[in-house]
Amino acid sequence: MSGAEAVTAVLLDVVERRPARERPYRGVVLLTVGTGIGGVVLDGVICRGPTGAGRRAGYDLFVAIGYSRAVRGWVYTYGQPREGGVVMGDLSAEFDSPPEHGGARVAADVDQVDDARTALASTGAHVIPAAVVRQRLQADHAGWARFAAHWEDLRPDKYAAASGTRRMRRYGRFVLARDGARSLVPHAAFRQPTNTNQLFPDAGRDFDPLTDAFVADPVLDALLPLLSEIAAEIEDAPQWSAHVHPFRVVGSTGSRGDATPEGRHQDGVTLVSSLLVARRNAAGGQSSVFDPDGREVLMTTLSEPGTLLVGDDRRTWHSVSPIRPIDLDAPAFRDVLVVTLTAC
Predict the structure, then answer these.
(1) Which of 19, 74, 149, 232 would bridge with 104, disulfide CB 3.0–4.6 Å?
(2) Torsion sign over Cα 249, 270, 109, 176
């Protein structure tokens, strides 16, 4: 079930549970999803929120999903127009049992994405937990395993090899429209903006293109709109240029497992993201994000597949420490999908 379907199910559940004399409604509007209604935190059984456009549009019922600190859980609330606002009653008190369609989980997921957008606008970086990301991508165990299998079909990065790093990758570029539509751009060499990469300052680098199977994978298809949704908080762009880099970094006793051989750097884009796909026999690989003055604003080790690190590349710098094998008789692997978005 998609997020939109689950939220719709919440609304239908609310409508069906109201007394018949209060129906039919001319329309139902989801007033808000998150930790507040009209700026008031859900911290009890009654919340008030503005009606504004909803009343003018002729809606009779307002529904909200939010986190109640009073009950320490997600609650479903409803309200009807009153003079000066909407009174939102605690609908969860009416339910013998919570709805089974996963609406509360959807509300939590939406809130996590909102947290990412807020963090980008403030500190410039945020980590979204794997459970939230995989739910948003609708990636169950089988779907994730299918997606991760694409990393077995990458090609050696000869440019990184020149500096002693063993890295596998492919590359492709998409244009993302505001409405979520995407188009794959004809394959070409990858070029970073001038003065963003000390190792490859002006060179175009030729990498093998993305496979057809990877381009068509449902996980990628869901990830790109999610990233554009997050990026919209820091720039209102009519469309995005998305550079897509599936990477595998290999660490062994004979090669450096260096994800960023160029060191602390920027990519010259608007949004930079790193999605952990898999990690095996690996120690290290710590991601760090810094502000313009060199202060560390975030430090994390992506360890659970599905964890997503996002950053505002225009005002932060980032780096990843090398990985090394835990069992010295076997290589260490760190598989990530790096996607950058630039307003265009």
Answers:
(1) 74
(2) negative
Going 255 to 261 to 263 to 264, the CA torsion angle's sign is negative
SS3 302: coil
Residue 235 tokens read as: 């720039």
Computed over its alpha carbons, how large is the radius of gyration of the chain?
23
Interval 35-63: pLDDT, tens? 333 322 222 222 333 333 333 334 444 55
> In terms of DSSP bridges, do strands 40-41 and 182-184 run parallel, antiparallel, or are they unpaired?
unpaired
Q: Give per-residue pLDDT as tens, 101-134.
A: 334 443 444 456 778 888 888 889 999 989 889 9
Segment 157-175, tens digit of pLDDT: 888 767 777 889 999 999 9
- The total of other beta-carbon atoms located within 10 Å of residue 72's CB is 7
- Beta-bridge partner residues of 240: 176, 343
Q: Which residue has the tokens 């060499």?
A: 189
User: For residue 220, which of 137, 140, 154 has the smallest C-alpha distance?
Assistant: 137
DSSP notation for 117-174: HHHHHHTSEEEE-HHHHHHHTT--HHHHHHHHGGGGG-EE-HHHHTTTBEEEE-BEEE
CB 203 within 8 A of CB 190: no
Domains and CATH numbers, the chain: 3-101 (no CATH), 109-343 (2.60.120.620)
Secondary-structure breakdown of the chain: helix, strand, coil percentages, each rounded to the nearest 5? 25, 40, 35
DSSP string across 220-245: HHHHHHHHHHHHTTT---SEEEEEEE
The Cα 252–Cα 326 span in angstroms is: 9
